[in-house]
Amino acid sequence: MIVVSNRVSVPKAAGAAGAQGGLAVALNSALREHGGIWFGWSGQETEEFTGHLDMQRNDGITTATIDLEPQDIEEYYNGYANRTLWPLFHYRIDLTEYDRNFGEGYERVNARFADSVLPLIEEEDLVWVHDYHLLPLGSQLREKGVKNRMGLFLHTPWPPTRLLVSLPFHERLVASMLEYDVLGFQNTEWLESFLHYVQKEMGLKVNLDNSIEYQGRRVIARAFPIGIDFREFTEAAQGAEAREAHDRLKSSVRGRKILIGVDRLDYSKGLGERFEAFGRFLADNPQDAGKAVLLQIAPPSRGDVASYQQIREDLERKTGHINGAHADVAFVPIRYVNQGYPRAQLAGFYRAADIGLVTPLRDGMNLVAKEYIAAQDPENPGVLILSQFAGAAHQLKDALQVNPHSTEHVAETIRKALDMPLAERRDRHAKLLASVRENDVQRWREDFVKALVGKNAVRTGTTEHNEA
Ligand code: GDG
Q: Please, what are the domains in the chain?
């Protein structure tokens, strides 16, 4: 198995705080269990691209990485991936930048990825490509003669056709995706958006099993909801490091209720709206002001992109404003922390929190919601408040689901969560836990690989019928 993603991030190499980001966390556990090579960008810059592969073995995982030129990083990573596709795929065409150089850089880096990974691919290998950075990689590899089975999993939402058509050359981008054998999405909503596009914009036929007829082949398109490494995470939540973190947080709040948010600092996560809703809750419940603390852990991300600098400034202003209005000499309601913590400590913080506040404006899945559930004490669990716009809302029906844009609704739901009787908390948690346990990262990987292996694993170049 050759796994390809933009960045390769193994916890030991990433330092004490470990991998931050859903994709890194999921791929680490999938690869540790089953082996294979993980190929991608090292995160390092080089003056001139050589394609040199740095092969390493770390924490049971073989990685192969390349360095990229500054212009590559600017146009492909900061540019097309994070200024064009990421906002567009999260329904933010107001933040989407369309720049010809970005598109060219994106194609160039995908070609560089293809050239560099090519020598690693052996005859029977499966190639599993990840995310919006590498949509055309499959077609680039096909052009170089790769006949292996190749699949793409998209970790983000897929936008509605009406938004996607604002992207110059959208047809070319989608056509390049159809060179994969399997296209995986987080849920049926994003899958249906994709199928709608290929039918309406490309006139393609979609079969009853959602496979797409394209140039004499059948491309499988399906939802594969990603999960967490349930066993690893629940064990971490019960270990000594988690217990210490739990106790440290608990004793610091002196009996107050704890709400927790854990998110990369990203405008898609709805942090500003969340802070406002908490501020509204404090204003509407003066009897409780001083009795609840919001701990928001938000490690900075993509700091070279202007919209991320902007959201960071907005949040600093909002935190200052709300704390200024509701703090007193011995208490501050929002603890806003711009750094990452090791996973075990994170698990302890989740367990200490009475409410998990997961309110993205749009999210492919959202693993934090699942981690929060896995980390709870089943005898005395906290309550998950979950945005209806997270992919996870399709599965986590027993969470308190909210519209994150409605300050009132979120504020009222915080009130409801704090008042929820123990029996209801246990009942909801038990159902959520069953879903998180069953739909874990191992199952996600197995389902995808099963579809990727297909029945007729030999690519003939002519008609091929693959049944997943
Ligand atoms: C993308 C999609 C999809 C966060 N802070 C720390 C830390 N994290 C970890 C969390 C969680 C992961 O990062 C974040 O995953 P999410 O799924 O919530 O969000 P994205 O990073 O946006 O991920 C998303 C995902 O891919 C997988 O397909 O669910 O929709 O956007 O695991 O725990 N980890 C540590 N310290 C931190 O401070 N160690």
A: 2-223 (3.40.50.2000), 231-438 (3.40.50.2000)
